[in-house]
Design goal:
CATH superfamily: Phosphoribosylformylglycinamidine synthase subunit PurS
Shape: elongated
Number of domains: 1
Order of helices and strands: EHEHE
CATH topology: Mth169, Chain: A
Strand content: 25-35%
Radius of gyration: 16 Å
Oligomer: single chain
Length: 84
């Protein structure tokens, strides 16, 4: 068993209204030094795989088919660790 952690974010070319609203709220709270906010998703998958390479392959396929929109999102595998 492997725990795979992923980050899914909007591509740079895609507007991020949630990020813009969060930036405005931060400015309202006095965080004027925050120039930009982008909002994404953090995902953990517990994958039954025989090795790390297979766990990565399964995670990539899950992102390409469901977890990330290929038109709007980028994704990154942050880590793959043997689960306890």
């Amino acid at each position: 068993m492997y725990r795979v952690t992923l980050r899914v974010t909007l591509r740079e070319s895609i507007l991020d209204p949630q990020g813009n609203a969060t930036q405005q709220a931060l400015h309202t709270l006095g965080f004027d030094d925050v120039d930009r906010v982008r909002i994404g998703k953090y995902v953990e998958l517990d994958v039954n795989a025989s090795d790390e390479q297979t766990a990565r392959l399964i995670a990539n396929q899950a992102c390409e088919k469901l977890l990330a929109n290929p038109v709007m999102d980028d994704y990154e595998i942050i880590s793959v660790q043997g689960a306890q």
